[in-house]
């Protein structure tokens, strides 16, 4: 049988978003479920609180942005705020992973926040957030086969 696959984050785990980063970007990935499940990816987002309607979505792709899906994030109860931190609102999201995802492929995502003040993105500093599909026992993605060689069994 083929090895079980897992999704491995290809970005540093920064933990909680900093108050300064939240003020600057207005939206930050708060936490990604650990480990991301091979069938769905769950996480939480923080946005800078503001009056009026708002929309938080996660845009993701499995084919290097040839196509993408926007998934709405759902509001969560407020978390305690430390003195001096901006008033943040929290949202949760879940991304469905297709069963066709294979070892060596990637899932890329970015977070969009729309409010009366404008549209803001957290795209990991322009690099997007990336999860690599790896075989569980081996740890890293498999190298692609050499040109002209048959696919692995």
TrEMBL record:
Pro residues: bias regions: 142-153
Cross-referenced Pfam families: CBM_21 (PF03370)
Protein name in the entry: PP13G phosphatase
Organism: Pampusana beccarii
Taxonomic path: Eukaryota, Metazoa, Chordata, Craniata, Vertebrata
Region described as Disordered: spans on this chain: 1-20, 134-153
Domain CBM21: 19-132
InterPro entries from the UniProt entry: CBM21_dom, CBM21_dom_sf, PP1_regulatory_subunit_3
Alphabetized Gene3D superfamilies for the sequence: Carbohydrate binding type-21 domain
GO-annotated biological processes: regulation of glycogen biosynthetic process
Origin superkingdom: Eukaryota
Cellular compartments per GO CC: protein phosphatase type 1 complex
């Amino acid at each position: 049988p083929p090895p079980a696959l897992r999704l491995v984050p290809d970005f540093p785990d920064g933990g909680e978003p900093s108050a300064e980063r939240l003020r600057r970007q207005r939206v930050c990935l708060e936490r990604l479920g650990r480990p991301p499940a091979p069938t769905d990816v769950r996480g939480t987002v923080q946005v800078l609180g503001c009056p009026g309607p708002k929309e938080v979505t996660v845009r993701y792709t499995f084919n290097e942005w040839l196509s993408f899906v926007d998934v709405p994030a759902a509001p969560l109860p407020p978390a305690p705020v430390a003195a001096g931190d901006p008033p943040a609102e929290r949202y949760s999201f879940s991304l469905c992973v297709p069963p066709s995802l294979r070892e060596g492929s990637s899932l890329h995502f970015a977070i969009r926040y729309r409010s009366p003040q404008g549209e803001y993105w957290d795209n990991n500093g322009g690099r997007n957030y990336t999860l690599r599909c790896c075989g569980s026992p081996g740890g890293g993605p498999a190298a692609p086969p050499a040109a002209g060689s048959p696919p692995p069994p």
